[in-house]
């Protein structure tokens, strides 16, 4: 693309944010050309204000017992205030019981490692799957292993309200009538999948039957998506115990009728097939072409029908676009976004800052350690990885 001949004519003037699963890219196009800046941010726009969603570790480990839960937070970019949305009460409860039953044990410090093979391991992981306006779809995984005791591996998907942290149903999002319509369809789809797997021929037939005994349909285990800007819900049947522990079986997505809140979301979403998403505007459109071979690279460009201006390549697929020019965001919001992008550059422990030498002064190279709970998104405890 860099070697290609530049298109004739001025690039369309625009400004927007491009969001994929775990990053946000700030694109500005004006008389100076096109510029793109990326940061490991997951953003949501709630009541016309940008917020950052981040996951923080809740580590309460001991030498022979690993307890690492996770909590989901929303941070308002203007005020800087954070609110907890979701937490793992099971892992925290196990840690509290262990502390009461073993008063002689000392919790590990942040820089201490536990046993290579701890007798107790309880680890949970929260992951934001997608965001649609004030609602976030998430996945929660739990892995509990107790030597000589119980083991449990579970998975769950759901949707929460970013304003309150409340768990939502399909009826809460799209109305009771839509819930009454799609839940029986999802249950019928699950019965079809189950019957198909149970009739599998060959040596793994018995394994499939045994595994299916540990999957139970749950109307609350679903996520929100969209195809061609039409809202969808996708149920995922959770597994618990046996060889199904920690797994989910996603069912085919089901389209649902638009709710009033969808109007504020629709222009953020792409039109067209997943291989080429389009965001049309009055005088141009943004295009994201996904590499069909790998599926993890999206090439961005602006085009006006006869001309096309390349922007760059991001990890695909592109989830949503936040337009910053129509309407123009307030100055306070812009300054808050700048601060958030600058701070996100410090999330990685590999970041280095180099300061230019002053007159008659030596140059300095400084390392800034990530601060605050958001730093744990990029830094996981080594003992938790070993236990997992």
Radius of gyration from the CA trace? Answer: 24 Å
Largest sheet: 7 strands, mixed
Residue stretches low in confidence (pLDDT < 50, at least 5 long) are 360-388
Structural class designation: alpha+beta
Return the domain count: 2
Average pLDDT over all residues: 85
Helix content: 10-25%
Shape: globular
- The SSE order reads EEEEEEEHEEEHHHEEEEEEEEEHEEH
How far is the N terminus from the C terminus?
42 Å
Secondary structure tally, helices: 6
Count the E strands.
21
Beta-strand portion reads 35-45%
What can you see in these coordinates?
The protein has 388 residues and is α+β, with helices and mostly antiparallel strands. It has 2 domains: 14-40 and 266-345, no CATH class; 45-258 and 373-387, no CATH class. It is 18% helix and 37% strand. It has 6 helices and 21 strands. The chain has helices at residues 89-101, 170-174, 176-198, 205-212, 331-344, 382-387; strands at residues 14-19, 24-30, 33-39, 43-46, 49-59, 65-76, 82-87, 120-132, 135-146, 151-161, 222-227, 230-238, 248-250, 254-255, 276-280, 285-290, 297-303, 308-315, 320-323, 353-355, 364-366. Strands 4, 5, 6, 7, 8, 9 and 10 form a 7-stranded mixed β-sheet that branches. The chain has a 4-stranded antiparallel β-sheet with strand order 3-2-1-19, covered by helices on one side. 31% of the residues are buried. Mean pLDDT is 85; it is low at 360-388.
Secondary structure topology:
Blueprint: E1 14-19, E2 24-30, E3 33-39, E4 43-46, E5 49-59, E6 65-76, E7 82-87, H1 89-101, E8 120-132, E9 135-146, E10 151-161, H2 170-174, H3 176-198, H4 205-212, E11 222-227, E12 230-238, E13 248-250, E14 254-255, E15 276-280, E16 285-290, E17 297-303, E18 308-315, E19 320-323, H5 331-344, E20 353-355, E21 364-366, H6 382-387
Parallel strand pairs: 6-8
Antiparallel strand pairs: 1-2, 1-19, 2-3, 4-5, 5-6, 6-7, 8-9, 9-10, 11-12, 12-13, 12-14, 15-16, 16-17, 17-18, 20-21
